[in-house]
Design a protein that fits this description.
Layout lengths: L2 H20 L5 H5 L12 H7 L16 H5 L5 E15 L2 E8 L2 E2 L4 E4 L3 E7 L8 E2 L1 E2 L6 H4 L1 E2 L4 E7 L4 E6 L8 H6 L3 E7 L7 E6 L5 E6 L3 E11 L9 H5 L5 E4 L10 H8 L26 E3 L4 E8 L5 E6 L3 E6 L2 E7 L1 E4 L3 E8 L4 E7 L2 H5 L3 E6 L6 H6 L11 H4 L1 E2 L10 E2 L4 E2 L3 E2 L1 H9 L5 H4 L8
Parallel strand pairs: 1-5, 4-11, 14-17, 14-26, 16-24, 25-27
Antiparallel strand pairs: 1-2, 3-28, 5-9, 6-8, 7-10, 10-11, 12-13, 14-15, 17-22, 18-21, 18-23, 19-20, 19-22, 23-24
Bound molecules: copper (II) ion.
Copper (II) ion (CU) binds next to loops.
């Protein structure tokens, strides 16, 4: 087969496969791929896939079976990870939307294990849930088609060894892969953090001394850790999933850990810094700026200057993430426990791609983590990090009796938002305090409160006024 013929054959093969998958009439215009608009086609793609028996029919079956009994008896550490699949209403900046969740929160609970552990995941679907759900854990090397979907009123468990270190997405796999886009983009996603068996590496940050020579600064592997997960919402006006908008990549909102602009200064910060709840620290939109919003109020991330900070980042969405910190250089980027870059300005994450970003904020100040795609920034992908005491609040906080002595970051006075704080690992520095924040149902927020996580919206009104 000569080269030219091979190319023509490939184009035709792709066109035929496309026409078969989407069930469309095969026409000359579709060969070019320029006029194919799935969202405007008069066939129901999902119905056709459903009629074929779901995508599992066309996927290979050569995947390893898992045997929990064998793995549990293997002597390895076994970590149980229990999830529910539940549809709930949750807020976004325009109303509420029909969310699908793991365990009534978006993102779902974060699993944290050590490389080599056995994960025993159980998915339970309540009786009154409207649809079946599945689970595909990218930390495993087992197809979600083996796990299949779990019907309402049922439970299913599978086990695997977390062989590779890194950050890994998990997500609903729909009903045998049907509707997977709807379930994931409506909220059914989360991450597993698999810590390296021998822990994280020391962080080296290159600086220069006054006379210009290199001055390498080393930071211990232990770090203050955050998780940030990026996604989009594609919604109709009444808050339902809009598949046509998804096919066109026209999202309604960009969310970080489930919220648009979830990590911004709120009423308390405005009061502390400006003496007025209505004056914003950052002169941009502050939609979640009200204590009445309870767990949905915006809440910045607090770190100390000179502190080793580690971000676990996952792109759960359908659009690229150009991860950038306004005012900082990313000191190190790792994927799968391998360093990918150091001293970089921006790191690109495609869909279902992750990184571990190590950063040391040298100077007190306000830094903004963005997806450096302007459409993403303006629709929600902006996260405020406050390092040190840039507003010189320590004397006022001490005078008001909110803290007994000056603190290295406002985390000691206000805590960090619970949804941005992953479970502790072997190289984690404990957060001084954690407050209830996130795309949680009220039921989940109540459970966090019972566990001792701070409900800021209740505590703030009881604090003595800041002079
Ligand atoms: Cu689902």
């Amino acid at each position: 087969m000569n080269k030219r013929f091979t190319m023509i054959f490939s184009v035709v093969a792709v066109a035929i496969m496309g026409a078969t998958l989407f069930g469309s009439t095969y026409t000359q215009t579709q060969i070019t791929g320029t006029t194919l608009d799935v969202s405007n086609m008069d066939v129901d793609v999902m119905q056709q896939i459903r009629d074929m028996g779901g995508l599992r029919l066309v996927m290979p079956q050569a995947f390893a079976e898992t045997d929990c009994a064998v793995l549990e008896a293997s002597g390895r550490n076994v970590v149980e990870f229990n999830l529910t699949g539940e549809s709930v209403e949750l807020p976004y900046l325009g109303g509420t939307f029909s969310a699908m969740t793991f365990s009534q929160q978006v993102p779902g609970p974060t699993l944290r294990v050590t490389q080599g552990d056995v994960v025993k995941m159980t998915l339970t679907i309540p009786d009154d849930e409207a649809t079946a759900h599945g689970n595909d854990m990218h930390a495993s090397q087992i197809s979600s088609t083996n796990f299949g979907s779990v019907n309402p009123g049922e439970s299913r468990t599978f086990c695997y060894i977390a062989e590779s270190a890194g950050v890994f997405k998990y997500h609903c796999s729909g009903v045998d892969l049907i509707g997977m886009d709807q379930h994931v983009l409506s909220g059914m996603y989360g991450i597993a953090i698999v810590d390296p068996a021998k822990g994280y590496k020391k962080l080296m940050v290159e600086k220069t001394s006054g006379s210009g020579e290199l001055d390498r600064q080393f930071h211990d592997a232990d770090a203050l850790e955050f998780q940030l997960q990026y996604n989009q919402l594609y919604l109709t006006d009444d808050g339902m999933y809009d598949q046509g908008a998804m096919f066109k990549h026209q999202n309604t909102a960009t969310v970080v850990n489930g919220q648009q602009f979830g990590y911004f200064p709120n009423m308390l910060h405005n009061l502390l810094v400006n003496g007025d709840t209505n004056i914003n620290i950052v002169k941009v939109i502050q939609p979640w700026n009200d204590l009445d919003l309870m767990q949905y109020q915006s809440q910045p991330l607090y770190v100390e200057t000179g502190q080793h900070v580690r971000f676990f980042v996952e792109n759960q969405g359908n659009e690229p993430v150009f991860w950038h910190i306004v005012g900082e250089i990313i000191d190190r980027v790792s994927q799968g426990n391998r360093v990918q870059s150091a001293a970089t300005e921006t790191w690109l994450l495609g869909g279902s791609q992750n990184m571990i970003a190590d950063v040391v904020f040298d100077e007190p100040g306000v830094y903004i983590i963005v997806n450096h795609d302007y459409a993403a920034i303006y629709t929600g992908a902006a996260t405020v990090v406050v390092a040190g005491d840039p507003f010189d609040l320590n004397p006022r906080l001490v005078a008001a009796g909110i803290i007994p002595e000056p603190v290295a970051s406002y985390a000691y006075a206000l805590g960090n938002p619970s949804d941005a704080v992953p479970p502790m690992g072997m190289n984690s520095i404990a957060h001084p305090a954690v407050n209830i924040h996130g795309m949680y149902t009220d039921e989940v927020a109540s459970e966090l409160k019972a566990d001792g996580v701070i409900p800021l919206w209740e505590v703030i009104p009881t604090l003595p006024p800041v002079p």
